[in-house]
Amino acid sequence: MESKTAELAAIRQSAADGGATVTVDHNGKLVGLELGRAAMALSPAELAALVRRLAATATAAALIDGVACLTGLGGFDLEGIDHA
């Protein structure tokens, strides 16, 4: 179980677009933010929307990694679950 905890803690996913890169952990917590010139040229509202969109994309990918890490652990299995 400790190894799975360490694997989960190590999960990081990033999403990049428009001169910004957002990195989150397996909980979707923001752990990195890089803003390039293009991102800094956006209005505050546009920049906020970009960061939120990228964070959502990265969080979805991190969640998939987290579920994959836990699949099969303690009977936890995604087979047969409707993902719609």
Distance between the termini: 30 Å
pLDDT under 50 segments (min length 5)?
none
Q: Mean of the pLDDT scores?
A: 89
Number of strands: 3
Order of strands across the widest beta sheet?
A: 1-2-3
Folded structure, characterized:
The chain has helices at 2-10, 37-40, 44-70, and strands at residues 12-17, 20-25, 30-35. The chain has 84 residues and is α+β, with helices and mostly antiparallel strands. A 3-stranded antiparallel beta sheet has the order 1-2-3. Strand 2 and strand 3 (30-35) form a beta hairpin. The protein is elongated. The model has no long low-confidence stretch (mean pLDDT 89).
SSE blueprint and pairings:
Elements: H1 2-10, E1 12-17, E2 20-25, E3 30-35, H2 37-40, H3 44-70
Antiparallel strand pairs: 1-2, 2-3
